[in-house]
Amino acid sequence: MAQYTRVSGSVGLITLQSPPVNALSAAVRQGIVDLMQRALSEPEVKSVVICGQNGIFCGGADIKEFGGQMSGPPLIPMIHAIEAASKPVVAAIEGIALGGGLELALGCHYRIAHSKARVGLPEVTLGLLPGAGGSQRLPRLIGVPAALDLITTGRHVTAAEALKFGLVDQITDHNTVNVAVKFAQRVADQPLDARRISTYPCLCPSDVAVLFEEVMQRVRRTARGAIAPIACVQAVRAAATLPYNQGMERERELMATLFTSGQARALQYFFFAQRAVGRWSMPSGARWDTSKPRPVHKAAVIGLGTMGRGITVALAQAGFSVVAVETQEKQLMEAKQKISGMLERGAKRRGVAPALDKINYGRNIQSVADADLVIEAVFEDMALKKKVFQQLSAVCKPSTFLCSNTSGLDIDQLACQTRNPELVVGMHFFAPAHVMKLLEVVYGPKSSPLAVATAMQLGKKIGKVSVAVGNCRGFVGNRMLKPYLEQALFLLEEGATPEFVDQVLEEFGFAMGVFRMSDLSGLDVGWKVRMADGLAMPDPTTGQPTRLRQGRRYSPLGDLLCEQGRFGQKTGRGWYQYDKPGSQVAKPDPWLHSFLDEYRARHALVAHRIDHQEVLERCLYSMINEGFRILEDGIAAGPEDIDVIYVFGYSWPRHRGGPMFYAATVGLNKVLERLEHYYQAHPDVPSLQPCHLLRKLVASGSPPIQKWREVIKKVRSQL
Ligand SMILES: CC/C=C/CC(=O)SCCNC(=O)CCNC(=O)[C@H](O)C(C)(C)COP(=O)(O)OP(=O)(O)OC[C@H]1O[C@@H](n2cnc3c(N)ncnc32)[C@H](O)[C@@H]1OP(=O)(O)O
């Protein structure tokens, strides 16, 4: 909806009214069309201002409308009509002007922005392009290089940057609507021909063809199979090479392809999934909207290894006072130096002062006594962590939240070491912790809603996407990773090479295949865990590693590599070879190929031809099957939680929506049928056995993902 008022006698003020972000719903578009006609028809009105209510100009097209039948006046003619108007139209931009919101402003003859406003064309992040003339007007206004940057990245820019680009005409610290009204009065008699952006020539640098080629190559390299960034480059190229009308036609064609694509659906699902995880709930019924967090002023981090350092930096950068504890003097000095370096580099990038003074370093655990929240980040060893929690419980004030950065150990066992187990939660960060967006907030059976709410809010304040999950081995992310890694090893046993498996997964869209990722994170990490679990042990009778553990198929390949000191990049050898330890350039290793041949011969394994389909299905469907088990067990509240965890924590390609959304797009019946097929072929691999929830969903007619929660609730109540 939109409201019309006449201000200062001669200015028609159109206010968009559609909370929370004044998105351009059918009703809003209708309102704009009607009210523009009214303003143009009133002889007293000499100029028009368009603004949005509640200090927000416009968040763009209403994304909720995309899934259904579009109705109401279309955006393109509406914006053309504004640009063609005989009276000056001024956009008063407060808060945000994004996507269709900025395209609307580009159709206006002038743009006045508040100094705190942000503008951008983020359509690419939704699998689209700025298809309401944005791809044609923006390069005409600010030039091809800047337009390519904004449109292909979707990044938001500040008002100051927008002014520098010439994207807005003026910025103000005062009431933007008042400033825009005065401005509109001043320009009421000015000719408009020079203000219609669609009539501008497109500003191109002399080497524009080279520029397009370079940008296209960069986009293809980084898009990981996403089609929208490529279409964005093509649309801007049309602006640079074609007259406006033909450019618009090209924009329309490209948009039509994107709009109905699976990628756009996946990205739009993911947009709402990201927001859904903030509305967390626990099986007890506690929820985000009924659980109040307690403010955290002072935080502490125990253990300053790689994870502890990253967490300390994330907290300090967000303005928290941090006590950083490392008991060994040498490690403490080293950590202090590294943390200061990280803070200084981060501050330089962001153009701010480094938050060095936010951190107090100490060797004694007593120094965290008055912290409101402590994050333990010592080595992943239950006995050690238990000892730290006992100490923390003894020294900290009774109200202190005690959190563990464990990547999969039992939170309940840690909680049991403390006087106040209800204040214990897991805060599972991902390396590097000051960069990676994901935080799993893990509640144990004793964790209070207060503790979960506080950890979730802290996560938000330090810029993380926080997902509340239940307590089980590996939580959500690492639990699902286990069958994925396991299948990758089995594929090697059966004839594949690490290069082939990685190539298939990277073509699917992962930033790194499973073996390159394993080399990067270090093979020894999982080896130590398997040893602690009694898995990575040679067979006591033969001294040879067996391929069976606890009645299930087991691949000792990773253990055998570790026994040879092949820990990945850090030792210069792993699933690949590297020029030197620490190098990141992975090369196929003939030694590994012979090793695999010998291994297969020793175990009488006959290598067979493994194709793309088998790699994808076995790795991904086994992981997805575990995802369904996680939903069934109530460890994740819904499929969105799993998908957000996988995109932000495990480099799952966002344009495929996340593993659970991917399962829905493939078709649940197909996933079920292929799992059944593989389980029949490998009955000693329980992760391939389709789980009850998957069967139930298929039996319920494979409802859309938004309806899964209803089936999950029924399945859980039957268990
Ligand atoms: C014909 C096709 C044309 C397409 C052109 C387009 O315009 S595509 C849309 C382009 N716009 C965007 O991509 C903006 C998307 N929104 C955001 O980036 C952010 O929401 C925001 C506007 C920067 C606000 O961020 P903030 O953190 O303050 O709030 P939330 O993200 O939590 O959002 C609040 C609620 O508003 C809903 N919402 C936001 N934008 C839209 C939108 N464009 N359409 C519909 N709904 C939108 C969001 O879902 C939140 O709703 P809740 O119900 O509260 O979760």
TrEMBL record:
One of its GO terms (biological process) is fatty acid beta-oxidation. InterPro entries: 3-OHacyl-CoA_DH_CS, 3-OHacyl-CoA_DH_NAD-bd, 3HC_DH_C, 6-PGluconate_DH-like_C_sf, ClpP/crotonase-like_dom_sf, Enoyl-CoA_hyd/isom_CS, Enoyl-CoA_hydra/iso, NAD(P)-bd_dom_sf. Pathway: Lipid metabolism; fatty acid beta-oxidation. Residues 298-471 form the 3-hydroxyacyl-CoA dehydrogenase NAD binding domain. PROSITE patterns: 3HCDH (PS00067), ENOYL_COA_HYDRATASE (PS00166). It is found in: Peroxisome. Keywords: Fatty acid metabolism, Isomerase, Lipid metabolism, Lyase, Multifunctional enzyme, NAD, Oxidoreductase, Peroxisome. One of its GO terms (cellular component) is peroxisome. Pfam families: 3HCDH (PF00725), 3HCDH_N (PF02737), ECH_1 (PF00378). It comes from the Eukaryota. Signal peptide: none annotated. This is Peroxisomal bifunctional enzyme.
